[in-house]
Amino acid sequence: MFDALSDRLESAWKKLRGQDKISQSNIQDALREVRRALLEADVNLQVVKDFISEVEARAQGAEVIAGVRPGEQFIKIVYDELVQVMGEENVPLVEAEEQPTIVLMAGLQGTGKTTATAKLALHLRKLDRSCLLVATDVYRPAAIDQLITLGKQIEVPVFELGSDADPVEIARQGVEQAKAQGVNTVIIDTAGRLQIDEDMMAELARIKDTVQPHETLLVVDSMTGQEAANLTRTFHEQIGITGAILTKMDGDSRGGAALSVRQISGAPIKFVGVGEKVEALQPFYPDRMASRILG
Ligand code: GDP
């Protein structure tokens, strides 16, 4: 499917043989290959451009280390830069000093938001953090039922007021209940639409203002490709996100969305979804994702 970047760089680096410094002129072919690899991994075009300039700046003037193939040395520079842009370390979910920690889930419909809500609760339960899930997607009664079913499966209670109640009110009461019951973390599932629309954003903003979450997590489908960048920009500008969950990484997506999301919002990706099952959630590790993106 994808040629490994290192193979592709072989020919680009033939030019470098016998040279002892990486310079602007001898680096261009290699940069072009990196650019192609990133675009194939679905990193957003502007993000690729910014990234390439960074790599170029870093690589320029680097001494070619004796005994190390220049291509490999260059890949290391690209890899290190990727890891750095994506945040270097895994950033865990915050835990508020005063219970409950309030987590707001945001994202388009079909991205895996409801599934991720349950996955996150199961993950926290395994860390001995009790949870309450809150169902505010009143536009799709099936979404409320889906959360109730998932809640039963993972033995985590679900707060809901049916599909006639106001989502902001459901969220507010859900948090109140979590407080009253001494629950550690309350996770609020919200309505998604197939596309970003003003009503959805306005409602999300009202829920956020009302419950003042400690985390606002954007759920992004890794298969979204280039669109992940625009999506992130809109949500971040209008709502403000503190982190992201990248779903469907069990598919053949190269994970370029991870770079776009981080570069555009500055917010860390905290988890990746790797399957339909509730157990299929993993912490996000920038180094692993960098290897995957580079192929
Ligand atoms: P929502 O509309 O954003 O709440 O999306 P759902 O949680 O209902 O998920 C939409 C579909 O994606 C469902 O069929 C899920 O089983 C599936 N899904 C969610 N997360 C993942 C994942 O990480 N991997 C795979 N393969 N499927 C997922």
Q: How is this structure best described in words?
A:
The chain has 295 residues and is α/β, with parallel strands linked by helices. It is 49% helix and 13% strand. It is built from eleven helices and eight strands. An eight-stranded mixed sheet has the order 3-2-4-1-5-6-7-8, sandwiched between helices. A hairpin with a 7-residue loop joins strand 7 and strand 8. Helix 1 runs antiparallel to helix 2, helix 3 packs across helix 4 and helix 4 packs across helix 11. Bound molecules: guanosine-5'-diphosphate.
| Principal-axis shape | elongated
Helix % is 40-55%
Question: How are the strands ordered across the major sheet?
Answer: 3-2-4-1-5-6-7-8
Low-confidence stretches: none
Please compute the radius of gyration using only Cα atoms: 22 Å
Binding site for GTP: 107-114, 189-193, 247-250
EC number: 3.6.5.4
Enzyme class: hydrolase
Family: Belongs to the GTP-binding SRP family. SRP54 subfamily.
Offer a few descriptive terms.
alpha/beta; 8-stranded mixed β-sheet; 11 helices; 13% strand; binds guanosine-5'-diphosphate
In short:
Its EC number is 3.6.5.4. The chain is of the alpha/beta class and 295 residues long. It is built from 11 helices and 8 strands.
Helix and strand arrangement:
Blueprint: H1 5-14, H2 24-40, H3 45-59, H4 70-85, E1 101-106, H5 113-126, E2 131-135, H6 141-154, E3 158-159, H7 167-180, E4 185-189, H8 198-211, E5 215-221, H9 227-238, E6 243-247, H10 256-265, E7 269-273, E8 281-283, H11 286-294
Parallel strand pairs: 1-4, 1-5, 2-3, 2-4, 5-6, 6-7
Antiparallel strand pairs: 7-8
Helix pairs in contact: 1-2, 1-4, 2-3, 3-4, 4-11, 5-6, 7-8, 9-10
Bound molecules: guanosine-5'-diphosphate.
Domain SRP54-type proteins GTP-binding: 268-281
Subcellular location: Cytoplasm
Family: Belongs to the GTP-binding SRP family. SRP54 subfamily.
